[in-house]
Design brief:
It is built from 13 helices and 13 strands. The protein is of the alpha/beta class. Strand 3, helix 5 and strand 4 form a beta-alpha-beta unit.
């Protein structure tokens, strides 16, 4: 008998951290850790001061709250999303979750039963694949090709009577690619025609290269019957440990989501929700600075990639927190990654963690999560990879 958890693989980031066991790094050549897409710095001081005030002065921060989240936070998201996307979002179409991963899990629980299918573009976000495995659903790989862009016509050919959704992540994890508005709209139209859901994970929307809306889906009539948008406050306000995410979709679906959330966490952590609300209302200028810094680091990788290009490496995608690379060696990436820790002092994730087992492309690829590495560190990273002989 196979248990639900035994149907999937071990958490990739935790697996990669085990490669550090017993390895020492010198002061003049410290570890460059580009394995996890999470800010390592705490929230900005102004937000921390507000959180300290909340701890002392806001009794509700310590109590159970509504299962679907703090009403004021739901209303703030609805108002800001309506402006940012040029559409109409109501507070009752917003739910707050304990991180974006929980939002995805909740969405899948409202959509699937045993053997149902969800299309995931490859390379995929591994936690999406893990939850589908444990939920008894089938992750159907949707190849994206050299540009890492999914194609709606290709997806159409993979839809079966068991297909319940297509899940997109843009800006993409792991590829870093930003899906063009026309691509996102094509997938929305396809899902609407097929009577399935479009799950659109926009965890990294705050670090998009364009200041314009990344899509027009919230302006479409009846969008809430097809679209399930997911979001995270972890990256925007460095609230990773407080686990605050969001789902924006129809009220009927949120009634089902409420059942899942009530059973799993009862309610999102109140302190994190108050912090997210304060951040949305007060940290717009600070967040713009964070976005500018991430975009500068993206530019540093793109402009400084030539030492790797000369050695046969390829930059397949770069954006938000990520760069996705193809290496030139015969040895597969899951064997090279532990060696890079020991020989180059670099911890990154192999493409095999983002691909089906039978897809050889994963063996040629690596993901770099660069948001915690400054420009000097990125130059050092590129030099170390260029000096690695495979």
């Amino acid at each position: 008998m196979t248990t639900r958890t035994a149907t999937t693989f071990r958490p990739p980031v935790m697996e990669a951290r085990r490669w550090l066991d017993g390895v020492a790094f010198s002061a003049d050549r410290p570890l460059i850790n580009v394995s996890q897409a999470a800010p390592v710095d705490p929230p900005p001081e102004a937000l921390r001061r507000e959180m300290a005030r909340l701890v002392m002065e806001e009794p509700q921060a310590h109590l159970y709250g509504p299962v679907l989240g703090l009403p004021d936070l739901r209303a703030e998201i609805a108002a800001q999303w309506s402006v940012a996307y040029g559409g109409t979002v109501a507070p009752e179409q917003v739910a707050i979750t304990s991180g974006c991963n929980e939002a995805f899990c909740a969405a899948i629980e409202t959509l699937t039963t045993e053997g149902d299918e969800v299309l995931l573009p490859t390379p995929w976000y591994f936690n999406h694949k893990m939850w589908l495995d444990m939920a008894g659903a089938v992750a159907v790989p949707l190849p994206t090709g050299p540009a890492l862009l999914p194609d709606a016509d290709t997806a159409r050919g993979l839809i079966t009577p068991r297909t319940r959704a297509i899940a997109l992540v843009s800006p993409n994890n792991p590829g870093g690619v930003e899906y063009p508005p026309a691509t996102i709209r094509a997938f929305y139209d396809l899902c609407q025609q097929a009577g399935i859901a479009l799950i659109l994970d926009e965890t990294y929307r705050d670090f998009h290269v364009s200041p314009r809306a990344p899509h027009d889906l919230f302006a479409q009539p009846g969008w809430d019957e097809t679209l399930i948008q997911l979001y995270s406050f972890s990256k925007a306000y460095r609230l990773t440990g407080h686990r605050v995410g969001a789902m924006v979709t129809g009220t009927a679906r949120l009634s089902e989501v409420e059942k899942f959330l009530d059973t799993v966490t009862i309610c999102p952590a109140q302190l994190g929700q108050f912090a997210a609300l304060w951040g949305m209302q007060n940290l717009g200028q600070w967040l713009a600075g964070e976005r500018a810094e991430v975009l500068a680091r993206r530019a540093a990788i793109e402009s400084g990639f030539s030492p790797l290009s000369r050695k046969g490496w390829k930059l397949l995608g770069c954006g938000a927190y990520f760069a996705y690379l193809e290496h030139p060696f015969d040895t597969p990436s899951d064997q090279l990654a532990p060696r890079l820790v020991q020989e180059a002092g670099v911890l990154l994730l192999p493409g095999t963690m983002f691909m089906p087992d039978d897809d050889p492309a994963g063996g040629q690829q690596f993901r770099i999560a660069f948001a915690n590495v400054d420009a000097d560190g990125l130059r050092d990273l590129i030099d170390r990879l260029a000096a690695f002989d495979g």
